[in-house]
């Protein structure tokens, strides 16, 4: 292998973190963590100081999402992966329908499909880089899909399924979308997410904005079905209303998450976040569309994500070597999702990432390609 290209320092972004998760963490979040070190870290999560932090976080997210009265922000330990099992036990009554158009939607679909106490799931699929449409189906009491497919860079509309049975819930995985894409949570019954993407914190926690219908479904199924204690949604609901979690949470995650929510709300909330990610993503797509050696992987502009961008390269470009060259120059985590197997880069445009750093990244890619 020939010696890798050295990118001139004046071309480099101020921050070289462009990973699809965990996200770049802003300096202000690290400073907030340091400031809280002597007061919160190493203290009980069931005492007032930490419970006040959780309470502020829940109120901040309620404001960010513009959630109406009756919707509640519920949280627990385990990440979005744990929430798939929680929803399988506690929100799907008989049968679920899933849209599976990438790695993460398919995983939730497998969870409900394998559950022995549920009917076989209806799973609607499409090729990677495209989006299937939901279809009302008699007997389905829960519809589910990701708002944003992290593996491919496809974003899906968030709206209820026309013609669905009365009482059917809509469960939307907002893990890589929440905090970066606009959403009307009243169109959902559980809009759930982790804090390690647009909210620029660490993983290991799940959060869900839940409707009164979802809260009632959880109570109903808790009385009918055995559920492991760790996965019992009513336990998480009861603890969240006390501004705590059933298990001990990572306080550093809560602190950095809360600081990001403060920053988002202080700058204009969801409108600010969605405009910022649209700016960044627009730079990537415009560059790729105009490039002789690159093109957007998602061909339909209406289906392209504004928080995860994916770019395919011509055969004469070794995208893996390109990513390694960028990494050697301090620009990290732009490799494609491993299971796609494409000659591709995946560039996150989360809210913590400066749009001007996106432009700098694109200039660096051009520099490497020229050399």
From TrEMBL:
TM spans (from-to): none
InterPro entries given in the database record: Aminotrans_V_dom (IPR000192), Pser_aminoTfrase (IPR022278), Pser_aminoTfrase_mycobac (IPR006272), PyrdxlP-dep_Trfase (IPR015424), PyrdxlP-dep_Trfase_major (IPR015421), PyrdxlP-dep_Trfase_small (IPR015422)
Required cofactor names: pyridoxal 5'-phosphate
BP GO annotations: glycine biosynthetic process, by transamination of glyoxylate; L-serine biosynthetic process; pyridoxine biosynthetic process
UniProt-listed Enzyme Commission number(s): 2.6.1.52
GO MF annotations in UniProt: alanine-glyoxylate transaminase activity; L-serine-pyruvate transaminase activity; O-phospho-L-serine:2-oxoglutarate aminotransferase activity
Catalytic activity annotation: 4-(phosphooxy)-L-threonine + 2-oxoglutarate = (R)-3-hydroxy-2-oxo-4-phosphooxybutanoate + L-glutamate; O-phospho-L-serine + 2-oxoglutarate = 3-phosphooxypyruvate + L-glutamate
Keyword Amino-acid biosynthesis set for record: yes
Highest taxon of the lineage: Bacteria
Domain (Aminotransferase class V): residue spans on this chain: 43-331
Pathway listed: Amino-acid biosynthesis; L-serine biosynthesis; L-serine from 3-phospho-D-glycerate: step 2/3
Keyword vocabulary terms for this entry: Amino-acid biosynthesis, Aminotransferase, Cytoplasm, Pyridoxal phosphate, Pyridoxine biosynthesis, Serine biosynthesis, Transferase
EC top class, as a word: transferase
Entry similarity comment: Belongs to the class-V pyridoxal-phosphate-dependent aminotransferase family. SerC subfamily.
Function: Catalyzes the reversible conversion of 3-phosphohydroxypyruvate to phosphoserine and of 3-hydroxy-2-oxo-4-phosphonooxybutanoate to phosphohydroxythreonine.
Record-linked NCBIfam families: serC_3 (TIGR01366)
Protein name: phosphoserine transaminase
